[in-house]
Amino acid sequence: MAKKPRPTTFIKDPLWYKDAVIYQVHVKSYFDSNNDGIGDFPGLIAKLDYIKDLGVNTIWLLPFYPSPRRDDGYDIAEYRGVSPDYGTLADARRFIAEAHKRELRVITELVINHTSDQHPWFQRARKAKPGSAARNFYVWSDDDQKYDGTRIIFLDTEKSNWTWDPVAGQYFWHRFYSHQPDLNFDNPQVMKAVLSVMRYWLDMGIDGLRLDAIPYLIERDGTNNENLPETHQVLKQIRAEIDANYPDRMLLAEANQWPEDTQLYFGDVTGSDGDECHMAFHFPLMPRMYMALAQEDRFPITDILRQTPEIPANCQWAIFLRNHDELTLEMVTDRERDYLWNYYAADRRARINLGIRRRLAPLMERDRRRIELLNSLLLSMPGTPTLYYGDEIGMGDNIYLGDRDGVRTPMQWSIDRNGGFSRADPASLVLPPIMDSLYGYPSVNVETQSGDPHSLLNWTRRMLAVRKQSKAFGRGTLKMLSPSNRRILAYTREYTGPDGKQEIILCVANVSRSAQAAELDLSAFAGMVPVEMLGGNAFPPIGQLNFLLTLAPYGFYWFVLAAENQMPSWHVEPAQSLPDFTTLVLKKRLEELLEAPSRTTLEQEVLPNWLPKRRWFAGKDSAIDQARIAYGVRFGDPQHPVLLSEIEVTSAGRSERYQLPFGLLAEEQINSALPQQLAMARVRRGRQVGLITDAFALDSFVRNVLLALQGATCLDSEQGQIRFEATAQLAALGLGADAEVRYLSAEQSNSSVVVGGSLVLKLIRKVAGGIHPELEMGAFLTAAGFAHISPLLGSVLRRDAQGEDHLLMIAQGYLNNQGDAWEWTQNNLERAIRDELAEAMSEQEQHYNALGELQDFAGLLGQRLGEMHLLLAAPSDNPDFAPEHATAKDAQAWNQQVAEQLERGLQLLQQHQAELAAGEQKLLGKLLQHKALILGHIQQLAKQLVGGVRIRVHGDLHLGQVLVIKGDAYLIDFEGEPARPLAERRGKHSPYKDVSGVLRSFDYAAAMALEAPAVDGAQGAAAGRRKVVTRYLAEARHAFVQAYRLATANLAHGWQDPAAADAALALFSLEKAAYELAYEAENRPAWLPVPLHGLVGLLRELKPFSDIESGGEQS
Q: Which ranges carry the Glycosyl hydrolase family 13 catalytic domain (predicted)?
């Protein structure tokens, strides 16, 4: 029976662990009071004031029980005692009392999965009869084949989870080392003994217990013996004992599992509580913080936080950067693990099991900025932060010591002998202190840093003091922001206290090594003032427009969003006036917009001025002769009325249709910037005023479209029926009316919005009759099971009187991505160039660099494109998708098409000849001089393509149409080139049309990297830049083409000519380069050298061009 616990004299709050900052200490390595070379409890007591002053409030002790210490104390030989090396039981009691006196709570280890083979329980079990209660304290078997579906955790040292015991004459089971037999929780006596041990320490005043290795408590045949339901029954019994007798104590789960599996260790939810552990470590988050810095991309962090499920309100994650074990990489994918190993542990001695045995400072190469950034994330992310002793001063490690001892070396207190840890003979120390010139105790120690106001130690103290001021860090909700700059991680922490007082904290971090700017949509907090928490300075107030911040390399901000009265004194409020809109008067309904006089005003005054300002409007170059509202259909709910409509625009004798839903925004509903920016007119109904705006900017409209898709709504209009159709996959998303709506800022010819983080709704602006390739290709590839696209979820079509469909909206699965491949490539090329120009190359960058990532990605892109082409080339009953073979007529058409494109490109190039540099003018002269030869070459190439497969293709493929997700490639935007008619965009082509598009895009990415403004005047900077770009082009092209050809090895081309594949690549690359010449001449003449060099490079096999060095295509 539990003793009545002594009431704690401080923080009477059962949820104390939510506001905790944990400091992890190894008794043996902290401070040696009796100079025997081993740290001890009296030594730890002597340093309690230091721990208190650091700003933490909870101490986690590693095992201090009697033990042979073959696993550093996790091999326990007696649960109810203290190892004589560390002191006595009386010392432990005194330590707990002294810690409590300083308002420090104490967490210790309850290692219940296994014991040491020296434990009396095991010694008794091995001698007891098989089948007896004493023998069954552990798990035994007559052979080592049982549970063969179970992984081995310590692959470096263990060959099996069974070890033969000659005394018992049986094998015993162990998930860890072979000297640590696992306890058998199927034996009720084991449970009884464990509860008794737990009560013993809780009665002594321990505040929390870390449950070591709990996913492995139970074994069952035919399973992987992890996370079994019976394990949870064991934990429920332990928690029931805590709840009944120790309500202010805490259980912390060490479950190195994915978030959805770890979530189970909080137990079944009853009210705000779980019925198992109060806390659990978030293992997958930790390596991804390092990954984000290595890749200079926030994605690894935002991705794992999105995957983290909700947990009961009274439960809490524990988060950490480093601890006493290796930096574990079990909870990452194989590819991510290789990446992190190559980046952070190029020296193989630093690797152990599935992890890296290094401390924080060496991992960050002593870069104070990165150490501070990671600590700022640790202290502001959702959860209770855990600091590892020595990391507050930037201690180093010793990878030459065995096992994990390299990160468990003595604490460095001063420049005295043994770093002030002990006065003992250095040879007798429990572990040798760090003595190298960078991390050794003469340069890294507490005494020196305490006296230095700018030291890491004093910075850590300041950060912890600031964090303590706000409960939002420990208890608040997390909301991620999505700035378009992917190197910026931004999120808010919000908490409303019992008194109703709300705290909002904005955290912004730059995970890149170069200065960055960020634009944040903070319109939800308009009027509030961001006050920087470390310095207390107020920044300008937040308005409806994006909030602009600049961050230093690896910089971060913590802002508390305060009331308007904290406005900085120097801030001058700009004069704000409502735009001078035309006012339309409505009597009752929104439909009156379709009647005179409102309709006349809209068609003759408002729309002709409003449309040319929109990016999606294609007719900006010529004046609008007429804008006519083709139809209007009421949609939405009475509070948020909308008119679905299309505008027929006549200009320069051409007529085009654009979709523009009209929305009504009442004055009191104007709370975000976008609907206001897109407003076209004021509207008055009686005394009420508002704005007529593009309804797509209204959250209510987007949500109503979603409801209409889910309900398969049909609406009748003068120009046919508008049908909302959904696929089965939409229902599976379970999106409700409260789903979050986020607008995508990078608008092109259509408008897109993300709903609930899982669906993208795209409103097609330019409406055309006929089957839309985006819808058709999406449906085909989704049905074919091609995973590397946005799956089709639904569509909105208008079917006219002739039965022809007009696509109005399309809903697709949202791919949580790292940006498009164009932007991602630019970022990585920039990293690669910086690596090349850095004079002191770090160990990390030498072994795994950005160029390696770019090459890997190019290979994956080639593979995915090849896989898609194989699906599109499969026999099909659908004539629109049935593959065909190129005839002599097709070859002739291609020849004519490419020749015409080339003629036009050269003609336009000639018009801009004067703007070209002398070298480029010379190239143009050569092209014109040998035009007949080039046209003959094109004809030769086209002839070789007879018999090749013609299939449906992407049609407008370049790096901007590819999303990067965890380093893999996903293809998007299948609508083809918007300037071409629908019928042509739905045509069948050679698959090499897509291949050449990507290759030319590589060329543009390289040119863009070379054009980047040179900020370093260092000698050879331009040469270094060129060297990196040339290598990128060669590696990316080779990897892409090779992977593509490997993936399409079974594509049934009926080519007669063995060189036809090369000919196809050359021909369609020429076509693309010639098209680019024309495009650049008409739109961006300054860029003409890029396609010009590309074109010349493609002609190198022709004699006149063979001597020209170029960045053009190679197959």
A: 24-423
| 854 & 925 share domain | yes
- Overall pTM > 0.85: no
Note whether 725 and 610 are same-domain residues: yes
- Domain of 360, CATH number, reads 3.20.20.80
What CATH number has the domain bearing residue 1015?
A: 3.90.1200.10
Q: What pLDDT shows up at residue 105?
A: 96
The tokens 């590696």 sit on which residue? 1035
Sign of CA dihedral 36, 39, 41, 44: positive
Return the half-sphere exposure (C-beta side, CA atoms, 13 A cut-off) of residue 321. Answer: 30
621 and 544 within one domain: no
CB proximity list for 432: less than 8 A, separation 6 or greater = 398, 401, 409, 426
* Distance in angstroms (rounded) separating the CA atoms of residues 251 and 810: 49
Q: What is the pLDDT of residue 103?
A: 94
Q: Who's near 585: CB < 8 A, 6+ residues apart?
A: 598, 683, 684, 685
**Residues 936 and 1044 grouped into a single domain:** yes
Same-domain check for residues 448 and 492: no
Written in H, E and C, the secondary structure of 622-675 is CCCCEEEEEEEEEEEECCEEEEEEEEEEEECCEEEEEECCEEEEEHHHCCCHHH
Return the pLDDT at 179. Answer: 96
* The token pair that represents 997 in the structure block: 């598009």
**Which of the listed residues 401, 433, 460 is the one where a domain comes to its end?**
460
More confident residue, 738 or 944: 944
Question: Over the stretch 397-451, which tens digit does the pLDDT of each residue have?
Answer: 998 888 888 999 999 999 999 999 999 999 999 999 999 999 999 999 999 999 9
Report the chain's C-alpha Rg in angstroms: 34
**303-356 tens-digit pLDDT:** 899 899 999 989 999 999 998 888 888 888 888 888 888 888 878 888 887 888
Does the residue 619 lie in any domain?
Answer: yes
DSSP 604: I
In a domain, 808, yes or no: yes
Q: What are phi and psi of 890, to 5 degrees?
A: -65, -45
Contact 690, 680 (CB under 8 A): no
Q: Where a domain ends, among 791, 814, 837?
A: 814
Is residue 867 part of the annotated active site? The answer reads no
The residues that bridge with 665 in the sheet, in sequence order, are: 691
Q: How many angstroms separate the CA atoms of 337 and 985, rounded?
A: 42
Assigned domain for 994 exists: yes
Return the HEC string of 54-97.
HCCCEEEECCCCCCCCCCCCCCCCCCCCCCHHHCCHHHHHHHHH
The CA distance from 891 to 940, in Å, is 10
pLDDT of amino acid 746: 52
Q: Say which DSSP state 27 is in.
A: H
For the chain, counts of helices (H) and of strands (E): 33, 40
Whether the CB-CB separation of 951 and 991 falls below 8 Å is answered with yes
Which residue range(s) make up the domain with 453? 16-117+181-460
Residue 805 contacts residue 944 (beta carbons within 8 Å): no
β-bridge mates for residue 518, sequence order: 549
**E strand or H helix at 224:** none
Comparing 187-196, 197-206, 670-679, 1066-1075, the range with the smallest average pLDDT is 670-679
Do 626 and 651 sit in the same domain of this protein? Answer: yes
Same domain, 804 and 931: no
Tokens standing for residue 350:
């630093």
122 belongs to a structural domain: no
The one catalytic residue among 254, 823, 920, 975: 254
Number of domains in the chain: 4
Dihedral pair phi/psi, residue 52, rounded to 5°: -60, -45
Q: Is 179 exposed, middle or buried (0-12, 13-18, 19+ CB in 10 A)?
A: middle
**For residues 851 and 344, what is the distance between their CA atoms, to the nearest angstrom?**
17
List the CATH number of the domain containing 545. 2.60.40.1180
Which among 32, 117, 212, 296 is annotated as catalytic? 212
254 in catalytic set:
yes
